[in-house]
Task: structure prediction
Amino acid sequence: MAALIGANPQDFANAIYPPGSKTPCTVVYRVVQAGTLEPVTAPIQVAVDLKVTTEPTPSYVFGVGESGHATFAGGAIHEIFSPTHNGVFRITNAPSQFELVTDFGTAGSSDANIYLQCFAPETVLLLVIKNPCKISDGAESIWVKSGKYATVPH
Result:
């Protein structure tokens, strides 16, 4: 993990390992470049299914048109938007487990079942990607427990 994030690994926790926090918090989601943790500026779309634990085995269907615009269907998945257009997405009162899809158009997508970890009322979740032009090169969903990256951008 140290090589991937380029920072103190004790400040982070893998987001795909259970159990999830029982108390909800607001998730502040950002996509960053591996090694530097600088924000990725490529256009992205984010979808979330907050009812994954109450659905009987949800089946998702994702599509990408020629223009690179993604569509999301199945379960209770829906697209969320960055209200400030700065690559920061908020999920208010996130449940202990949810499905999170991040689409980069023709570069690929990342889909993960996330277990909530609340380290503050607003907790930062990072998608750390190795190559924004080819998502299949690797991506990890990581909670920020402490340190300078735990600061919530506005």
Remarks:
- The chain is about 5% helix and 40% strand.
- The chain has one domain: 2-145.
- Residues 2-5 form the longest helix (4 residues).
- Residues 20 and 96 are 5 Å apart (CA to CA).
